[in-house]
Amino acid sequence: MQVRLHYARQGLRNQSASIRGHLGERSHGKAGYRVVIRRRAPRAPSWPPRLAPPPTKLLPAISETRCVNKTAVIGSGSWGTTLAVLVAEAHGNCALWAHDPAEAHDMAARRENVRFLPGVTLPDTLHIEHDPAAVLRNADLVLLTVPMRRLRENWDAVAHLIEPHAAIVSGIKGLDPATGRRVSEFVVEWAGDEIRHRLAVLSGPNLAREIAAGEPATAVIAARVPEVGRTVQQRLSAPTFRTYVSDDVIGIELAGAIKNVIAIGAGVADGLRFGDNAKAALMTRGLAEMTRLGLTAGADALTFAGLAGMGDLIATCASPHSRNHYVGQELAAGRTLDDIQSRMVMVAEGVETSRGALALARRLGVEMPIVELINRALFDGLPVAEAGQVLMARELSHELRGLRRDD
Questions:
Q1: How far apart are CA 256 and CA 312, in angstroms?
Q2: CB of 90 within 8 A of CB of 18?
């Protein structure tokens, strides 16, 4: 095995260091520099593993189809573009679908997503297309990164073009505002039950701007079929992006969506200049509400203590890059929701998710006072300072009420 080492400046596009061998990449930091170890696949790659749900073989192996280790990203917002850059840099052969033809042309010409991810160079291994057929042709992994409210129209545009044995990954953190249903539930309804065996969901503390800048980050991938989860894990892993696997699809989706609602509350707390005690209490009790709902819906309580729960909650409640936190701050400043949203280029999923989470909680008989009051502040004109007073005046109770199976 021939070895070549170089030091490369931190960032996704400056990774010149390599070790030539077999599969995988690793990196080690050094005072502002990073040694990146790159290994190239042998001529007859055994990766990715076979997408076959146990105990019986329901799906052919990826190698038995026309798929060629190609990743297709549906949605050219900040998150979709970031994931596309990540995969293209780490593994190559990635295509990004931009719904607007002018936007697709501009991104391809400039090699930059000026509107949603300015300042980040798009690598040559990333192909930007307006034609969904070109993006999805021969792709064995499809990432959905569109806003929740546009899921159906985008699904209808691409579903018939997805390769029959491709894995489908939702990177969408939202709930249907009317029913509280999750993305995976809609996809199964529209595509049929068989697709469950090819579905995965992605979540975690994943602020797009930081990941695109090459800063270290982690995520969790949940799938019903372990081999699907491991395949997605391998494809999305990069020197600065470490992924874990889980089998708790329900918990990962609910945690990723509802933490956005709690982040609006954290923004309110910061906007009202509450202290650290108040913000910590809001986040912790918000996590308790998320966990209660998840348990009742069939999720694993430990999921909410992991990356998709507490991890994502911390990042979204604390970061100045968080859209949902921004909404809360603006509410505290006295602005209306319409005014706030008119100033935003990107979608704050927590706004509509507050409706969906409340609808699901009521259907399942779960108490979520923080989510309910945030919903009232967003849509019913409840003053945010009054919402805080209502929470403090609630009936005293046990801290772990509703968090144990026997409650």
A1: 7
A2: no
Measured distance CA(302)–CA(175) in Å, rounded = 21
Question: 């923080």: which residue's tokens?
Answer: 370
Instruction: Name the active-site residue from 70, 173, 259, 279.
Output: 259
pLDDT (tens digit per residue) in 156-200 = 999 999 999 999 999 999 999 999 999 999 999 999 999 999 999
Q: What is the pLDDT of residue 406?
A: 67
Report the CATH superfamily, name and number, of domain 251-392. Answer: N-(1-d-carboxylethyl)-l-norvaline Dehydrogenase; domain 2 (1.10.1040.10)
Four-residue CA torsion sign, 305, 308, 309, 311 = positive
Domain boundaries, the chain: 1-41, 65-248, 251-392
Q: What is the pLDDT of residues 30-49, one digit of tens each?
A: 344 343 334 334 334 433 43
Q: Is 173 a catalytic residue?
A: no
Asked if domains 65-248 and 251-392 share a fold, the reply is no
Residue ranges of the chain with per-residue pLDDT less than 70: 1-68, 405-407
| Amino acid letter, 34 | R
The CATH classification number of 65-248 equals 3.40.50.720
Structure tokens at 175: 């709930």
User: H or E segment at 135?
Assistant: helix 132-136
